[in-house]
Amino acid sequence: MAIAEQPLTSPTQPGQLLARGVCRHLRDHDFMCLEEFSPDRGLRIDVMALGPKGEFWVVECKSSRADFASDHKWQGYLEFGDRYFWAVDADFPTDILPPETGLIIADAFGAEVIRMPDAAPLASARRRKLTLKFGRCAAQRLQWARDPMLSVGI
């Protein structure tokens, strides 16, 4: 049986570079992150972070004003985190971001939390469901990384 060819890796997009810096920063604060996490059908969170006390932070990475303006789903992500943040680069016009949300300034190498939003604790049933989904997603990604045959469907 022939092994399917792996697709060529596409260049890293600006939002993905921001996500990498955010994940590095949050890891320094004992948060474990998953990029492009889907908490529910039709949704994809740029960075979902699970903290040491079981808290979830949702981080949406925006690389430009146009990227922010075209995001019509972000309010649907609020129900999946205890705190919600925007991650942008140092040149982003931060005055257009909703003031009740958190703000992270990031680049490909690191990040800094500039504004901490108020906590909106998740209901315990939602937290349990989200924790299970987060753990299963992380385990699946680890399996795919360790066994390339799984990711190509063989």
First-to-last CA distance: 9 Å
- The count of strands amounts to 6
Helix-strand pattern? HEEEHEEEHH
> Mean pLDDT score, rounded?
91
State Rg.
Answer: 16 Å
Any idea what the shape is?
Answer: globular
Major pleated sheet: 6 strands, mixed
Produce the secondary structure layout.
Layout: H1 14-28, E1 32-37, E2 45-50, E3 56-61, H2 65-69, E4 83-88, E5 102-106, E6 111-115, H3 124-146, H4 148-151
Parallel strand pairs: 3-4, 4-5
Antiparallel strand pairs: 1-2, 2-3, 5-6
Any overview of this molecule?
This protein has four helices and six strands. The chain has 154 residues and is α/β, with parallel strands linked by helices. The protein has a six-stranded mixed sheet with strand order 1-2-3-4-5-6. The longest helix is centred in the last third of the chain and has 23 residues. It is globular and about 45 Å long.
Task: Give me a quick take on this structure.
This protein is 31% helix and 22% strand.
Q: What keyword list fits this structure?
A:
6-stranded mixed sheet; 154 residues; alpha/beta; single chain; 6 strands
